[in-house]
Amino acid sequence: MATIVNGALSGAATAAAAPGKLLSGLSHLAFIEGQEADRDRLSDVNWWTDVFRLRASAIRKVWMSVGVVTLFSAVVAAASITYGQSLGLTNNVVPLLSVVVGLLLVFRTNTSFARWEEGRRTFTAMTSTIRSTSRFVWINVGLQTFDAERDSFQHAKWTAQDQREKRIFLRVLCAFPVAVMHHVRGEFGTEYDDLRDLLPPNFAAVARKANRPLGAELKSADTRLPIPDFSRRNSAPPTAQDTVQSQAESIVFLENEFARPSVPLPLTIAHYAQLVLAKWRAKGLLDLTGPAGYNALSTQINTLIAEFGATERLGTMAIPAIYGIHLKQVVSLFLLLLPFTLVDTLSWKMIPFVTCYAFILQGIEGIATEIEQPFGRQPSDLPLDLITAELRNEIEHLMTDLPDDPTVVDELFGAPTS
Question: Which residue range(s) make up the domain with 292?
């Protein structure tokens, strides 16, 4: 185990160059802040600035569908007014459908915002877990005890290599939410600028086996995996030819998963973080924290894994397709019936009225569609790049500016007065 962990943490002398890492973190944060400055935000003082804004509004999502409804309304108006076709319907149809449409849209919007809010809470909780874990590790791992004979704080088992590994461990913790962010966006692997400075130089090579794409094992092992056809309950047993064909289909299917790793990178990071804790415990670097200290750190790692699972669920599992399809069908039915109920009373003025109504209803659905997946790069998505960059900057300043030596407590409280 020590060999594996040492391999994952190799290159420590380079990775622990605190000033360089601090400047790199600051430059990355400045770059992300520059991008976030261009993000559209609500105006605090001017109502009409937001009214006439197009880039972050729902118009960019629904203008085509609203245009279709407008064109259909114009056709109905022309047929009824110009060509004298009797197309008008009783106005009793609209109130019946409007109640159903309203209930569906309210439920859809509330569900989507609940997903957005849960994503915000989950990612914020993840950063809080890393903050508390980093502080605990920075202070308590290799904690020095007071040696009465030497009249100073000492730790017989603590070395410079251990200090470098502790710094690397904190950066690996910072890499965890970055890896989660890329994973839920469908961006796999470690070749990203915000991950390179956080992971040890040899981490990618050590973790390559866990992160090889699905299907590589099947291709190398020549395994026969028939795919059952659940659409036929009483189907005959597969023949040898079917088995070979199913195996080929299995490998093709698995190898076309956009290089999705067998073990997600966040879980690989958590695994090696747990191995580092086990190594420190074996070396006695956690002795002063006792069993409770090691258990607390292990619990924090498990908490990060649970938060990753919640984030992955929100990022990869959308609402049931049947619900979204039915909602769009009902709203479309309502909007296409609306011109027939208004053409006799409003004449040509019915067209802009239906257009506004379509923008309202379809815009609500467009909003729900955008905010139900809060981890992307849309204007209304969570600023994950900024959150992770700020966290990295905090941890770098923790290691650079805040001490892990208990003797500074005397300086904090000052010398005793007689």
Answer: 1-38+121-214+266-315+380-406
CA distance 142 to 165: 11
Residues 399 and 293 in one domain: yes
Q: What is the pLDDT of residues 309-321, one digit of tens each?
A: 999 999 888 888 8
Task: Please tell me whether residues 243 and 285 are part of one structural domain.
Answer: no
Per the structure, the count of domains in the chain is 2
d(C-alpha 192, C-alpha 171), whole Å: 15
Average pLDDT over the chain, rounded to an integer: 78
241 and 304, same domain (yes or no): no
262-276 pLDDT tens trace:
788 999 999 999 999
Identify the residue whose tokens are 């994950």.
Answer: 384
In order of 162, 168, 191, the CA distances from 6 in angstroms are 11, 11, 22
pLDDT above 70: residue 130: yes
Q: What is the pTM of this model?
A: 0.77
Provide DSSP, 195-247: HHTTS-TTHHHHTTTTTSBTTHHHHHHT---PPP-TT-TTPPPP-HHHHHHHH
Residue 68 lies in a domain: no
Rounded Cα–Cα distance for residues 152 and 160 (Å) = 18
Query: Residue 126: is its pLDDT beyond 90?
Result: yes
> Using an 8 Å Cβ cutoff, are 184 and 375 in contact?
yes
139 and 6, same structural domain?
yes
